Amino acid sequence: MSEPPVTVMVVDDHPMWRDGVARDLNERGFDVRATASDAGSALRIAQAVTPDVVLMDLNLGDTSGVQATLQITQEIPGTRVLVLSASGEHADVLEAVKAGASGYLVKSASAEELVDAVRRTAAGDAVFTAGLAGLVLGEYRRMAITPDSEHQAPQLTERETEVLRLVAKGMTARQIANKLVISHRTVENHVQSTLRKLQLHNRVELARYAIEHGLDQDGDPDTEEP
Asked: Residue ranges of the Response regulatory domain (predicted)?
């Protein structure tokens, strides 16, 4: 039995671009449930159709896609936002990520890159146009706050820490499984266990936690199975 298609909503104030992206995604097997042209209607419509992924432009005329991103990620927990913008400015990227976006793609990306990014975003990965991931990692490192010594951090197993480190480096669950020579299911079990211990909700938050604690800077873990 095949898995249901990824559901998508496209938010862009340019009708031709918006409709073209929606059509292309439908032709690639996605279920484009709705489109919107401004921040206000984006939240309202997203609440009604609850898509897996919202493709969000940042420049929505008089309104900002950053505010729409913040509202959608706060009010619709099961929906992830992937920014698709003409801007590759560092300030725009960081604003979007801080508002809760799961990833950032520039509009010069190919159709294949867009399709892959939407699928990976729906699966919980953090997806960025080449060159932008390093920017986000560096910013989260800069903003990292030294943990309060009075509040002891949750204890993770060695394997959970290894998996967390690779999540921070942007690897998918399948890539982590191949690197550590363990099953895909085992990786998912470690991810879910770590999420519970850290009281986080998804892999994007998990990656942020790892980055803030410097785990993405460590050397590659070994491949020995516990």
From this structure: 7-122
Please name the amino acid found at residue 142.
Answer: R
Strands (E) in the chain, as ranges, are 7-11, 31-36, 53-56, 59-60, 63-64, 80-85, 103-106, 127-128
Q: 3-class SS at 53?
A: strand
Cα separation, 187 vs 4, in Å, equals 23
Task: State how far Cα 72 lies from the chain centre.
Answer: 14
Give percent of the chain with pLDDT exceeding 90: 31
Contact 88, 82 (CB under 8 A): no
- Which pair of tokens denotes residue 157? 């197993």
Judged against a pLDDT cut of 60, whether residue 21 lies above it is answered with: yes
Residue 122: helix, strand or coil by DSSP? helix
Dihedral sign for Cα 106, 17, 70, 120, please: negative
Note whether 224 and 180 are within 8 A (CB): no
Q: Look up tokens 């706060």; give the residue.
A: 74
Angle CA 60–66–69, to nearest 5? 105
Tell me the β-bridge partners of 31. 7
Specify the pTM. 0.65
Show Cβ contacts of residue 191 under 8 Å, excluding neighbours closer than 6 positions. Answer: 163, 167, 173, 203, 206
